[in-house]
Specification:
By secondary structure, the protein is α+β, with helices and mostly antiparallel strands. 23% of the residues lie in helices and 26% in strands. Strand 1 and strand 2 form a beta hairpin.
Length: 165
């Protein structure tokens, strides 16, 4: 009984209400962010991907916001995370600092199919815009980390844009 109550409390805190069944929270989402949505609230996805590619040719350090501003984007975001293949909703919420339900997370059956992966931009704990990676591999390499506007980046010897340690 105590476990069922704890699971229900966690489900409600995660942004999805939940019905408890066999000690597992089954999310019932009141609002959902579609990762594959085409809405460009902050700016053009294509221009952002172009600027990321240009940034991969830079020398020295620069901030994440330099890339979004060069793409003509609004500064109305505070976190950026990667939405990789087979990420769970719980892990995405933890990484993004959100309490949301997500639709169309990239999944692979392991048979060589590589679905589109995304960058997710967040403002005040709410998903704002997702941007599909133009290639199978992201030029920005920060794994499960988080970028903010102030994150200092550089290009490593392999041509990847990486956060400064």
């Amino acid at each position: 009984m105590a476990t069922s109550i704890a699971v229900a409390a966690i489900a409600m805190l995660s942004g999805c209400s939940g019905a408890v069944r066999h000690n597992v929270a089954v999310p019932v989402c009141t609002s959902t962010f579609d990762i594959s949505a085409k809405a460009e609230v902050l700016g053009s996805n294509a221009r952002l991907n172009d600027e990321i590619e240009k940034a991969s040719k830079r020398s020295g350090t620069f901030q994440a916001v330099d890339i979004t501003r060069a793409a003509g984007w609004s500064d109305d975001w505070d976190r950026m995370v990667q939405v990789r293949v087979n990420v769970t909703m719980a892990k995405l919420n933890r990484n993004a600092g959100t309490a949301s339900c997500f639709k169309n997370l990239p999944e692979s059956d392991g048979e060589g199919y590589r679905p589109t992966q995304f960058y997710l931009f967040v403002k005040d704990g709410k998903p704002v815009q997702s941007v599909p990676w133009p290639n199978v591999t992201s030029t920005l390499q920060f794994g499960d980390g988080v970028l903010t506007k102030d994150s200092v980046l550089s290009v490593d010897a392999k041509g990847w844009i990486v956060p400064q340690q």
